[in-house]
Amino acid sequence: AQYDRLIVAEGAPQCTCWNQNIWLNPKRISFESIGDAAKKLKDIQRNWALYPYAERGRSKLILDQLPRVSAKPLQFPCTIPSAPLGSFTLLDRHTMLAASDCTSPVPNGEYHFVEDTIGPPSRAYLKLWETFSRIQEHPLTGQSCLELGASPGSWTFVLQSLGASITSVDRAPLDPKIAALPGVKHMQQNGLSLTPSRLMERFDWVLSDAICYPDKLFPWVKQWSEVQPPVNIVCSIKFQGSDHYESIKQFAAIPHSRMMHLFHNKHELTWVRLASWTDPTSFSTLR
């Protein structure tokens, strides 16, 4: 069944790439009134987020009777709430679909931030903010980063603001105000030629937001994923039309990695492999 962006399937949870939130235990619940619906949800747990579908006005009235869940934009860097957050939607006036266990800790997987309209030269920084918020890790002061597809410098801005030193790479120059930041070294060249075997420097993080076909990016990422000791890797996988979807399987097959469709992604996915995830006890493909 499909309810706009909400798709309900039979069977065990699936590790799909393009979701923003997975409802792990959805149940149909019948109710008599707005108060009855709110009571039945509160009897399950405290925190609920509304996914608006049918009967939107009635849904909002139910939400108003539930304990408040903060809807304030996140201030990056941020700690994501750890309390369980369920999701519900109305299918008709007296039936709702509700799941107490969801993979996203924020309502409907929508990461809204207090935006920086001054520092970064484009809105691409929001993708990196969201990625770091989702995985709850980011570069630390003194760590080093190699960044491909850096121009005009929004990801560079994020990394530098966290205290990291950055070797940014792009055929195009950085925005002058980004290039002038302390700890930023820019190289105007083809970044895919910078493989581990050609670079003597050790990096803690390797990142790419390059405009590059996935089949061209994959061999480069694969080489960095095999570096020992492991490095942290974050990259955008960009698609044109329906081409190159087969490459998703290649990236997903790299051990201890995760593919995400961010709220701030467009026709692209974000692939992540953290050094800490090479320990199987610390890794989950769903969350």
Give an account of the 3D structure.
The chain is α/β, with parallel strands linked by helices and about 290 residues long. A seven-stranded mixed sheet has the order 9-8-7-10-11-13-12, with helices on both faces. A hairpin with a 7-residue loop joins strand 12 and strand 13. Helix 1 packs across helix 2. It is elongated. It starts with a strand and ends in a 14-residue tail after the last strand. The mean pLDDT is about 95.
Briefly characterize the structure:
The protein is of the alpha/beta class. It is 21% helix and 20% strand.
Shape: elongated
Mean pLDDT: 94
Specify the number of helices: 7
Strand proportion? 15-25%
Protein structure class = alpha/beta
Query: What's the helical proportion of residues?
Result: 10-25%
Major beta sheet, specifics? Answer: 7 strands, mixed
Number of strands: 13
Strand order of the largest sheet: 9-8-7-10-11-13-12
Terminal CA distance reads: 24 Å
List its traits.
287 residues, alpha/beta, seven-stranded mixed beta sheet, 13 strands, 21% helix
Layout: helices, strands, pairs:
Layout: E1 2-3, E2 6-7, E3 27-30, H1 34-44, E4 48-50, H2 56-64, E5 86-92, E6 95-99, H3 125-135, E7 144-148, H4 154-161, E8 165-169, H5 176-179, E9 184-187, E10 205-208, H6 214-225, E11 232-238, H7 247-252, E12 258-260, E13 268-273
Parallel strand pairs: 4-5, 7-8, 7-10, 8-9, 10-11
Antiparallel strand pairs: 1-2, 3-6, 5-6, 11-13, 12-13
